[in-house]
Amino acid sequence: MTARFLSWLLEDTALDGQLIKSAEVRALCLADAISELEYAIRFHEHFKRLFQKWLTCHIITALVLYVLLGLHVWSGIYFGLRWFQ
């Protein structure tokens, strides 16, 4: 954001109808783009680690719930079919 403000201060120059950016402005814009890219990469890596942990927790919870579901079905069959004997 600072680079954008500084590029506004340094103003581009017009020569023969074409917009010419000074080397300082181009360097500031490039530095701004690089910093935004680095931030996006760090942000992506952070959320990738976070969701990897969530996925592990989710899979473990799902397996536990499947075991409980199996026990529930087994107990329903075991205790429920006694009534028919």
Structure in words:
With 85 residues, this protein is mostly helical. It has one domain (2-84). Helix content is 79%, strand content 7%. It is built from 2 helices and 2 strands; from the N terminus they run H-E-E-H. Strands 1-2 form a two-stranded antiparallel ribbon. A hairpin with a 2-residue loop joins strand 1 and strand 2 (18-20). Helix 1 (2-10) runs antiparallel to helix 2. The longest helix is centred in the middle third of the chain and has 58 residues, at 23-80. It is rod-shaped.
Number of helices: 2
Low-confidence stretches: none
Distance between the termini: 78 Å
Hey, roughly how much beta strand do the residues contain? 5-15%
Mean pLDDT: 83
Number of domains: 1
Which series of helices and strands comes N to C? HEEH
Rg, please? Answer: 31 Å
Per DSSP E runs of 2 or more residues, the count of β-strands stands at 2
Structural class: mainly alpha
Biggest sheet strand line-up: 1-2
Described by strand count, sense and barrel closure, the largest sheet is: 2 strands, antiparallel
> Shape, please?
rod-shaped
Proportion in helices: over 70%
